[in-house]
Amino acid sequence: MGYDREKASDPRMNDVPSALAKPGIDVLGDIRKTLRHGAEKPAVRDTGDHILNPTLGPYARWDGPPRDAAVLIPIIEHGNEPTVILTVRTAHLSSHAGQIAFPGGKIDREDNGPAAAALREAEEEIGLEPEAVRPIGELSPYLTGSGFKVIPVVAEVTPGHRLVANPHEVDDVFEVPLSFLMDPVNHLRQSRVSDGQRRFFYAMPFGERYIWGVTAGIIRSLYETVYR
């Protein structure tokens, strides 16, 4: 499905250098220390689309109760340059078609919590077997304007695992250096007018990839959890 691991994991694809990609900085190690199992959990933070749009409220485009969902933030340790797996949603989906996303979806009643839901969705979407995944911890819920309460589950993935995109949900799978995503220099604040209102969001362009919206907001939440 167009998945080129060597190209996707090459930090030179982006023209903006990462301030964190230098000797002595261990981004994955910092994430482990902050989220590791058995340690005191980080304080629950207020995160969501409403942080950049405080006048619109946390569920600006949804009238009912929030819907529970979970996403997996899969990190592969490639020596000194860990990468994060991201997907491109298919163009025919009813929501967020063609956008870049983490594997994930709604938490079903049968799921044993957010981590189980995120692992199930990752296996369905990109063929990531649960045995190849080691959860590190969870971030604070991310509230979306479309009415979802998303639990991001951060995990490590065994290197060399073959990924197969489900053509009904995913057009492409690619990787981005973790150091790039955790560098605030690359966290752009942009806006667009939707339904007559200007909405602000984070965007993290990476080569030809345009990471924005909820996905970029969750990445920003991971950065703030670890480094602020």
Question: How would you characterize the overall build of this protein?
Answer:
The chain is an alpha+beta fold and 228 residues long. It has a single domain, classed as Alpha-Beta Complex (Nucleoside Triphosphate Pyrophosphohydrolase), CATH 3.90.79. 20% of the residues lie in helices and 31% in strands. The chain is built from 5 helices and 12 strands. The strands form 2 sheets. Strands 1, 2, 3, 4, 5, 6, 7, 8 and 9 form a 9-stranded mixed sheet that branches. A 3-stranded antiparallel sheet has the order 10-11-12. A hairpin with a 6-residue loop joins β2 (67-76) and β3. The longest helix is centred in the last third of the chain and has 15 residues, at 213-227. The model is unreliable at 1-17 (pLDDT under 50).
What does the secondary structure layout of this molecule look like, with pairings?
Elements: H1 5-8, H2 27-35, E1 47-48, E2 67-76, E3 83-89, E4 100-101, E5 104-106, H3 114-126, E6 133-138, E7 142-143, E8 148-157, E9 170-177, H4 178-181, E10 188-194, E11 197-206, E12 209-212, H5 213-227
Parallel strand pairs: 1-7, 2-8
Antiparallel strand pairs: 2-3, 2-5, 3-4, 3-9, 6-8, 7-8, 10-11, 11-12
Helix pairs in contact: 2-5
Task: Say what the CATH topology is.
Answer: Nucleoside Triphosphate Pyrophosphohydrolase
**Shape-level CATH architecture:** Alpha-Beta Complex
β-sheet strand percentage: 25-35%
Estimated helix fraction: 10-25%
* Order of helical and strand elements: HHEEEEEHEEEEHEEEH
Specify the overall morphology.
globular
Looking at CATH, the homologous superfamily is Nucleoside Triphosphate Pyrophosphohydrolase
Q: How would you sum up the major sheet?
A: 9 strands, mixed
Instruction: Give the N-terminus to C-terminus distance in angstroms.
Output: 37 Å
CATH top-level class? Alpha Beta
Radius of gyration over alpha carbons?
17 Å
Q: Based on DSSP secondary structure assignment, what is the total number of beta strands?
A: 12
* Overall mean confidence score, pLDDT: 86
The tally of domains stands at 1
Question: Which structural class best describes the helix and strand composition?
Answer: alpha+beta
Low-confidence stretches: 1-17
